[in-house]
Amino acid sequence: MILQAKVGDHLTAGEPLIEIHARNEQEALAxxxxxxxxxxxxxxxVQAQPLxxxxxxx
Length: 58
Fold this sequence. Notes:
alpha+beta; 22% helix; pentosyltransferase activity; PYNP-like_C_sf; transferase
């Protein structure tokens, strides 16, 4: 799986979100359905959250 679009990117209809690599089409479609269910769409721009929220030191 390769993410073609990141949080906050502006997309238009038809632009790819994710490139899925799977063993067969059935597996790819199952992955696609799962991934699309995890996305939310917005008409307004959103800012990406930081990848690292905090560091825990021993």
